[in-house]
Amino acid sequence: MKLNRIPTIAIAVIALALALPIAALADVTGTPTLAANTALNLDTGATASSGGDILWSGSSMTPQGTAKAFNIGGGGAASFSQYTQTLLSQLDSLFSNAAIPGALLAKDDIFAVKTKAGNYAKLLVTGVSGTSISLQFQTFGGSSTPAGPTITQILNNYGLVPAGFTNSGISPGSLFIIKGAGLADPNAPAVLQSSASPGLQTTLNGASVKVTSNGVTTTPVFYYAIAAQLALVLPSNTPVGNATLTVTYNGQTSSPAPFQVVQSAMGFDAYYGTGSGLGVATNNATGALYNYTNSIPPGTTVVLWGSGLGADPTRDTTYTTSNINQVLGLSHIYIGGLDATIAYQGPSGYPGLNQVNVTIPAGAATGCNVSLVGVNAAGVPTNFLTLPIGNGVCSDPTFGTTGTQLQTLSGQTNVNNGALFVFQTTSPVNSTGTASQITDLAEGIFDRVTGSSVGTASGSVSLGGCIVTETGASGTTTTTTTTAIDAGTVTVTGPVGGTVTLTSSPFAGLGLYYAQLAAGAIPTSGGTFTFKGSGGSVSPFIGAFTASLTFIS
């Protein structure tokens, strides 16, 4: 690798690498329970005795001020997930300042609100008890708040590992984000600031940030600042240790938020900006971006992008290609479980943006989601990603999937999934002396997810790989919401034991069907198992199907 290639490649992908987290901004969500005569601000989630966007009187829901509403009707959680910002905006003419009668607001009813700030919100009634009403809501783009700045999360800009995990720290010289409310001017656009001379600034859109670590206070610089999220570079002279951070906006300062400053905490960029799933990798020679339909041949040297290798004082605020030296934040990178050769790791030229040039092992497994993880000298891992390895369109024959399918499905609004299993479990002898048991089982799982979550593939890994998904108590962008699908009556017929009907038991958003088979139902001689589904009737549902799988002795 020639160092003079670094700026060229960085320029080719900087817009992608830094813009992805902006696209992944979270909307305002909440699950409040409103007593009689309680108002709710849908742009902040705050409740009060007056004001807000809607007021629950105990018997009706009334828009406040310039806010407007309309009742959509029943449908529950499955229908609630279908209402997007685009769809609500197309229904704008239906919004009015008329109150919605309480008689319409039964459990599973859905209504919409256009807030005083002009944002669209959807609300689901999750329960009614006396004069109280419980709601689930999502406001698209809500961010304004009458209170001072509130910090909810401090994350590596790319890894997005939530607090509480050993790899959640922020290293000096890295690009990190602050999530919350009231952090900057609510009317400010998410414009990426230039790091050309004179460089990134310490204030933006009325916001400033202070970090105190081991008694030393430093001032990060901004890439962008909007009310719900700030993106900054942590100064390289920030001491390692327990730290606190405050945001000041409009003359008000947030409560100090704790986080860890660590020497190295690399976070790799994910293709869909989620911190997991398909990783961003470019060809070292051409800068071409790899994806499901343009997979990486084993033996190819690729560039991985991200932030957190460690301090780089030369580029704390300003783009420069002078003093390009390696920052050895990673000891190993494992691709498909194999130790890959690291050719270069260090600055890209841009503040906070690192690149790691690594060669895909010649013996690496092929597939659409081959595991990728790096570790530092202390054995602390990066976030876990996957890479498409192969030639042209990637393929996972064992799962019956190809890169073309993944690429196509990721563009769909919703994707229905179905998986059928026949498997055997063995329980060993336990401490009480109970004999070991062998149990034969059949199972079916049917669910619906968004197309974007199929594209992230954050829960998928090619055969032989291993990944870890890290989700905090408050949730991160790695979380995928699933909706159970009704498949009707599902049966399985095996080589012995006849036909068995699987029991339906929805679990954690999954349409789960299962049955314990008779002893010996999976014979050592092998055989074919045929599943049949009658097709469901409760939305969302699938039609009738027949599918078989064969065990070979």
How would you characterize this protein structure?
By secondary structure, this protein is mainly β. It folds into 4 domains: 28-140, no CATH class; 148-261, Coagulation Factor XIII, Chain A, domain 1; 267-395, Immunoglobulin-like (Sandwich), CATH 2.60.40.10; 414-459 and 482-552, Immunoglobulin-like, CATH 2.60.40. 8% of the residues lie in helices and 39% in strands. Strands 22, 23, 24, 25, 26, 27, 28, 29 and 30 form a 9-stranded mixed β-sheet that branches. Strands 1, 2, 7, 9, 10 and 11 form a 6-stranded antiparallel β-sheet that branches. It is flat, with a radius of gyration of 26 Å. The relative contact order is 0.11.
Features:
553 residues, 4 domains, mainly beta, 6-stranded antiparallel sheet, 8% helix, Immunoglobulin-like, 9-stranded mixed sheet, Coagulation Factor XIII, Chain A, domain 1
What is the CATH superfamily label of the largest domain? Answer: Immunoglobulins
| Radius of gyration over all CA atoms, rounded | 26 Å
CATH class of the largest domain: Mainly Beta
Protein structure class: mainly beta
Ends: how far apart? 50 Å
The name CATH uses for the topology of the largest domain is Immunoglobulin-like
Largest sheet: 9 strands, mixed
CATH architecture title of the largest domain: Sandwich
Strand residue percentage: 35-45%
